[in-house]
């Protein structure tokens, strides 16, 4: 059954180009159409929507409020169509896109350094990496591999446990009193920085030490651990974060652990992929790479991205 009341892609392209140039003539030049054809497409779109998209002001086009609202949606649709088309153009060919999602700070601090060299081993696989925090459906969003923090069960997915999580307190050395920290409750005087993805972390950290405070949930809240770490470095307070995400600042002395107690999280970090993709070459190769480099420290810059292709191939052949 057809959908006669939906606008065509051509009419959307004509509308978007006209709105960008504020001219049917310039939009026509860009789209290799006549001015009248563009004007007719926009008129048809207005008829479908039953709202005016443009009005003429001193012989120039001006986008109406309704047109401005619709324009943002049209641009999303056109971008999605372009992305989907390019995805299909690469599917099954000599070059393939591997869509990967990751938690933001995990991706920046742990995953990306371990991708160094993957391109040399799998030259025909192009990685497309996106941040995701909220749960989602891998199949509907065409995700091949996902890194997540949780209990390790996801319907219709194969999950590999990567490692557990150890939460530690970190802050700038400058905000610690000269007398030091003699009790965990003293941290509440320094401001507890909250992480939106671990809302009960401070409560559980105090509880594990048989300590209670009404300030467990009080303090500035940040969407990502990266933001919480930056706030801690700036002296805004004390952050409770996974130790491996703070290693860079701890090693550089930019952050210190004010109270030596760590909390092992109940969940862990996992790598997941759809069951039916287990034998897909690009997925299998990526999984093998990650598991192979799980315990391997990230390469230094001298060994990393600056290495030429021929040199990298030489190293792989000799290893």
Shape: extended
- Secondary-structure-derived class: alpha/beta
Integer average pLDDT: 87
Order of helices and strands: HHHEEHEHHEEEEHEHEHEHH
The biggest beta sheet reads:
8 strands, mixed
pLDDT below 50 for ≥5 consecutive residues: which ranges? Answer: 300-319
C-alpha Rg (nearest Å): 26 Å
The strand count comes to 10
For the largest sheet, list the strands in their spatial order.
4-3-5-10-6-9-7-8
Number of alpha- plus pi-helical segments: 11
Distance between the termini: 59 Å
Give an overview of the whole structure.
The protein is α/β, with parallel strands linked by helices and 319 residues long. The protein is built from eleven helices and ten strands. The chain has helices at residues 9-21, 24-31, 35-49, 65-90, 104-111, 118-121, 201-207, 225-233, 243-252, 281-292, 309-318; strands spanning 54-57, 60-63, 96-102, 125-131, 145-150, 157-170, 192-195, 221-222, 238-242, 263-274. Strands 4-3-5-10-6-9-7-8 form an eight-stranded mixed β-sheet. Strands 1-2 form a two-stranded antiparallel sheet. A hairpin with a 2-residue loop joins strand 1 and strand 2 (60-63).
In short:
The chain has 319 residues and is α/β, with parallel strands linked by helices. Helices cover 38% and strands 20% of the residues.
SSE layout:
Elements lengths: L8 H13 L2 H8 L3 H15 L4 E4 L2 E4 L1 H26 L5 E7 L1 H8 L6 H4 L3 E7 L13 E6 L6 E14 L21 E4 L5 H7 L13 E2 L2 H9 L4 E5 H10 L10 E12 L6 H12 L16 H10 L1
Parallel strand pairs: 3-4, 3-5, 7-8, 7-9
Antiparallel strand pairs: 1-2, 5-10, 6-9, 6-10
Helix pairs in contact: 1-2, 1-3, 1-4, 2-3
